[in-house]
Here is the input.
Amino acid sequence: MLFGKMLILFLWMMSSAWARTPVMDPAFTAQDRYLKWVRRLPHSTHPESYRFAAELHRDLAPLVRERPGIIRPFVVGRSVEARPIWGFRVSRPNTEIHSTVLVFAGIHALEWISTETATSFLEELVMLPPSGVEVVVVPLLNPDGRDRVEDDRLADRKIYRRGNARKVDLNRDFEVNREVRAVWHHLIPAYYGHTGKALSQPESRALDRLLAERFDVALSLHAFGGFVYTPWSGLWERPDDWGRLHHLGTIMSQAQGAHAYKVRQLSRWGFFFRAQGSELDHIYGKYGTLAYLIELTRSGLNPFQPSTFKDPFRWYNPIKPERHVDKGVSALRALVY
Here is the structure.
């Protein structure tokens, strides 16, 4: 009997102790996971003016460590080869959120200027988070494709890469406006291709799960062209929110100063052009989020450097990225602040 009472007392004391044990904040758990992951990343030397993916994360790690209440890393999903796709939530602590914005980049393997711009914007946001706005930044949606291009750059291989590990173009893997209606597809079918099944890849499914949070605005960063594109990409007609889309796009364009990007509906880039199954139409058509696709730079081709024409990497990424990054960040800053 005495043993039984002692056992009951022991269990009660243990349960009380467990009840008093604080639950670890999941944000800090994610922070620790991210910092440990960054420490395991490889180091490499290279001649690029663009940061490799590991360098980008090593530059972000001190911000995550020193400003945990402002920047909160999380795993959006995993790639075909199980690489984590990291996202970062940025907001001002103890401030009511009235708007949410998503910025993502690196959907195409060769378009490094997009990831460089998204990361630079994230670094700026953390130092001065906007009041009342939560911004989610995903700098690299396609880590497998990026890894292959990094290997190409180190080995001086000039290979055109656009897709993920399965060579799938993720920007043709979404649900909305997949059907082909334009007569021009009979003449130039390559412009109207899409994956056989929507959301067939883990990267596009990860983005779709994130979009289900219902952001007010979402921006996808690409290269090249120098445009701020609005929906639709797969239909010629104007979207219902055309006026508002054009207004916000103009705010971003005007913030860029001289040689600003033009605001245009993507399907009206050319009378023959449509993009079926794009993320732009998926974001707007499925979730009602105001969506933009920003084509950064006007290419890295240089008529005085013929070698740039032979290098697919240079088609999308100017040799010196700083000026082009600033232009992209200026547009994003104008929208968010």
Summary: Residues 99 and 133 are 5 Å apart (CA to CA). The longest strand covers residues 71-78. Confidence is low (pLDDT under 50) at residues 7-24. The radius of gyration is 23 Å.
